UniProtKB/TrEMBL annotation:
Residue ranges of domain AB hydrolase-1 in the record: 31-263
Gene3D superfamilies xrefs: alpha/beta hydrolase (3.40.50.1820)
Lineage: unclassified sequences, metagenomes, ecological metagenomes
Protein name as it appears in the record: Unannotated protein
Natural source organism: freshwater metagenome
InterPro entries per UniProt: AB_hydrolase_1, AB_hydrolase_fold, Carboxylesterase_BioH
PANTHER family given in the database record: HYDROLASE ALPHA/BETA FOLD FAMILY (PTHR43194), PIMELOYL-[ACYL-CARRIER PROTEIN] METHYL ESTER ESTERASE (PTHR43194:SF5)
Amino acid sequence: MPTSFALPESIVSGKTSKGTAWSRCGNGPTIVLLHGVGMNKSVWAPEVNLLCESFDVLICDMWGHGESDLPNRELSLKDYTQQLVDLLKELEIDSAVVAGHSMGALIALDFAINNPNTCLGVCAMNAVFDRTAEQSAAVKKRAADLAAGGVSVNLAETLERWFGQPGTHEFPEAEALAQELLLVVNPKGYEAAYSVFAVSDKAHAQTLTTLAVPALFFTADGDPNSTPEMSFAMAALAPNGSSKVLTGHRHMMTLTAPEEVSATLATFTQSVTK
């Protein structure tokens, strides 16, 4: 792929007083990128490289992922949202566009709904919403299997869900990176986040109508679990919501189509920071 999977050398990294690892580079309006379950902030390297020439890009590890600490308590979606609130406060960032992928999208939406004075706009990528009974049962089973047997139990199934069957797609480097990140994730941090992810698809069903900031719901046509229909439904509920569907990609479009994702983020950010 033409886009680098390595973070730029100019990036600055640190860790907050509360244990959140972060990295930041670039100048301009601030864009915060939130990763999904099992990944870490380095998964955003392609987008960081493409966006940091025009924007101040901030990435962070969610609790129990990458270099961030794992709080010694049962976590809820609100705990991951508060992690972002505290990070922005400590870095003295007064306003930002927040974009999240998968579980990161749930966190981004929760932040946007509850912090409209800080959030300039929100982009929810490959977000889940109001799963069917069958979808809900499947994700809860994956969470239970993960708790019982660890990451390796459903690793192959996860990668196939994210990228397609091995050898049938054009993104072996992206798949290899995702596999590498899954294999090094803190198992307890992964389990904690997945347990929240499995039950949070209806977290904003009653509150999306109160979302005060511009919102873009962006997914891929080949994503079997964060479907275009979910993005359409969320966009219809949000007062200033819109949707976009990327053709020819699946759940990990942030790795398989970073140019398109970055261009979409840039256009959206420019539209809300004029």
